[in-house]
From TrEMBL:
Organism the protein comes from: Actinia tenebrosa
Transmembrane segments: 27-49, 61-85, 105-123, 143-164, 189-210, 236-258, 278-298
Full protein name: Galanin receptor type 1-like
A cellular component annotation (GO) from this entry: plasma membrane
Molecular function via GO: G protein-coupled peptide receptor activity
Gene from which this protein is expressed: LOC116299250
Region (Disordered): 328-359
Membrane topology recorded in Swiss-Prot or TrEMBL: Multi-pass membrane protein
Superkingdom of source: Eukaryota
């Protein structure tokens, strides 16, 4: 995720200011996308962790790929959205010189990890559909490939460590800018990111999916259940790849125009760039929605987790009301007359040692009755989230 560079700062100063309504609208969308991305991808990780079936050979280790993609999307949300918003909206980098180098590097790493994970998933699907007679990819190899995807992603982002510099300007605001020894270096790196983290992976992925779809339609080597399972996973991955391709294309075009053309002469360049960032982040929040919309297994697990959360919330509220009622009854007991107190004492039985036996208060009887009636219904739902597993 590139920030504005020092060499273009003078040209950016001539940009048309963003209208106030547009800024508010954009920031509201940023907030919505952030919440959906974090919440949705945490939900995906919860489903995968709580269900061994998704991580088994029976589902082709489907869960490991989706969880790896969810980690990358979470990293995009946590590393890109907050830092980019603070820097662009305030014009100041308040974090530190170390963070100035770390954050942009991790931003590019997380974005690159997404497309590399999709490439690995494509390879695994190709093996399962086009070459089903070959031995399935073992779990160890799957995890190794996913680890390599992150390593390649970090290597792709490593030039950011050396390019970004932290300094203050005349207005006493700290800047975190991408400074290259020569413009050609920046152009080379921009082209490298476009080719290696966008163009080339998609040139491999799309023809491969076309081949898989053709093979699956003509194949008679799968029974109906296997064919439906393969079609389902293929349909989900195609949707994810299409969303990724369309979301990232405007940003790549904008940076190519900025580095190789006269993109900055466009007076609305900076406003357009901010909305391009929004499109990139929408890609990260859309994946959990795609899983739920196209995969009935995920849809069922989403519903179970949400029902569980609602049940826990209701049970907690009921228990809280019962506790408050008991506390109020204890603090404000009804007063009885001296005669009633004497008669009450005479009715209290004594044990063999002559001590008064314990008498439960009316409030405790109410609470015990409440617990007995609800034990099998409400409190049954108050179980750890891991209890949702059907493993």
């Amino acid at each position: 995720m590139n920030f504005t560079t020092d060499s273009y700062q003078d040209q950016l100063s001539s940009q048309v200011p963003e209208p106030y309504a547009s800024r508010i609208f954009r920031l509201v969308l940023y907030a919505i996308v952030f919440v959906l991305t974090v919440g949705g991808n945490v939900l995906v990780c919860t489903v995968v962790i709580n269900n061994r079936k998704l991580r088994s050979m029976q589902r082709f280790y489907y869960g490991y790929f989706l969880m790896n993609l969810a980690f990358a999307d979470l990293a995009v949300a946590l590393l890109c959205i907050p830092f980019t918003v603070v820097y662009y909206e305030t014009g100041n980098w308040p974090f530190s010189a170390f963070m100035c180098k770390l954050v942009p590097t991790l931003q590019v790493t997380s974005v690159s990890a997404s497309i590399f994970t999709l490439t690995v998933m494509t390879y695994e699907r190709y093996q399962a559909i086009v070459q089903p007679l070959k031995a399935q990819i073992p779990k160890k190899k799957v995890l190794t490939m996913l680890g390599m995807a992150w390593i390649f992603a970090f290597v792709s982002a490593s030039p950011e460590i050396f390019a970004y510099q932290f300094h203050d300007n005349a207005s006493q605001k700290f800047q975190c800018r991408e400074l290259w020894p020569h413009q050609k270096y920046r152009q080379s790196y921009t082209m490298f990111l476009f080719v290696c983290t966008y163009l080339f992976p998609l040139m491999v992925i799309f023809p491969t999916y076309i081949k898989m779809m053709s093979t699956l339609k003509k194949s008679h080597s799968f029974n109906n259940t296997d064919k439906k399972l393969r079609w389902k996973s293929l349909r989900v991955l195609i949707a994810v790849v299409i969303i990724f391709a369309t979301s990232y294309l405007p940003q790549h075009i904008l940076f190519l125009a900025m580095d190789f053309g006269s993109g900055l002469s466009f007076p609305y360049f900076e406003i357009t760039l901010k909305y391009c960032y929004l499109m990139v982040w929408v890609s990260s929040c859309s994946n959990p929605i795609i899983y739920g919309a196209l995969d009935d297994y995920f849809r069922d697990k989403y519903a179970r987790i949400l029902r569980h959360c609602v049940a826990v919330k209701r049970s907690t509220k009921k228990l809280s009301r019962a506790t408050i009622s008991y506390s109020q009854g204890t603090l404000n007991p009804q007063k009885s007359s001296p005669t009633e107190q004497t008669l009450e004492k005479e009715r209290i039985p004594r044990d063999q040692s002559g001590r008064l036996e314990e008498i439960s208060s009316p409030q405790s009887n109410i609470l015990e009755s409440y617990s007995a009636n609800n034990d099998k219904n409400d409190f049954k739902q108050v179980t750890p989230l891991l209890g949702c597993s059907d493993t």
